[in-house]
Amino acid sequence: MEKLNDQMINEKLNEVKNWKKDGDHIKRKMQFADFKSTFAIMTRIAFEAEALQHHPEMFNVYNNLEISLSTHDAGGITQKDFDLAQAIDRIADQ
CB neighbours of 72 closer than 8 A, spacing ≥ 6? Predict the structure, then answer.
């Protein structure tokens, strides 16, 4: 998978909600009603990530979830990150 350049990343950031570029990652912060709800979303994300064979970095404290995406094999951000970001957005918005 080819690493995207800054122009391509900025264009693709317009296609996903609430994601920001941070170095060689795109990141999103979310907040849910409680820990149980947050963990349920994390589980659904895990199943989607496994299906896409692309695994996010997730950090959770109670009802807060931070997700960071990068394609380590490519050394930065690729289309795989945006594909997973869109899937995460669909899950989070349900």
Answer: none
Give the 3-state secondary structure of 39-52.
Answer: HHHHHHHHHHHHHH
The pLDDT-based confidence of 17 (bands split at 50, 70, 90) is confident
Question: Domains in the chain, start-ordered, CATH in brackets?
Answer: 6-92 (3.30.1360.20)
Residue 10, helix vs strand vs coil: helix
Instruction: Give the 3-state secondary structure of residue 25.
Output: strand
Distance between CA atoms of residues 23 and 58, nearest Å: 17
**What is this structure's pTM?**
0.94
Instruction: Give the whole-angstrom CA distance, residue 82 versus residue 78.
Output: 7
In this predicted structure, the answer to whether residue 57 has a pLDDT above a threshold of 90 is yes
Question: What are the φ and ψ backbone dihedral angles of 81, each rounded to 5 degrees?
Answer: -65, -40
